[in-house]
Amino acid sequence: MPSQPSVAQLQQPAEVKDALALQQQHYDCTPCRLMGSAVFTGMGIYSYASGMRQLRERNLEIMRSGSRFGLGARKGAIYVLSGSLVGLGVYRLTN
Question: What is the tally of structural domains in the chain?
Fold first, then answer.
């Protein structure tokens, strides 16, 4: 059985690094990590599927517009966005 701290020990302020270490120990629970990871990964998958579907639907409209940003740039932006979100999901799960 651990001994009780004395009155003198309780009256002294705690070390800052010890208090921060104690807070960090219970800062992030496993269900929070799983939920955050699932949300980021799901957003990445959804943004990829939705973005590619919209590009297929508006392919002719984009080609006729003569915009500086053609299909390649738009697909690249969708790849970067969805890849970043999935990467954040993996990062959230591991860290």
Answer: 1
Is residue 82 one of the residues assigned to a domain? yes
Asked, for residue 16, whether it belongs to a domain, the answer is no
- C-alpha to C-alpha distance for 44 and 4, rounded to whole angstroms: 51
Q: What is the pLDDT of residues 25-49, one digit of tens each?
A: 767 788 989 999 999 999 999 999 9
Domain containing 43: what range? Answer: 29-94
How far from 69 is each of 15, 29, 80, CA to CA, in Å? 57, 43, 15
Q: Which two tokens stand for residue 37?
A: 């990871």
DSSP structure class, residue 29: -
Which pLDDT band, with edges at 50, 70 and 90, does 75 fall under? very high
Instruction: Report if residue 6 sits inside a domain.
Output: no
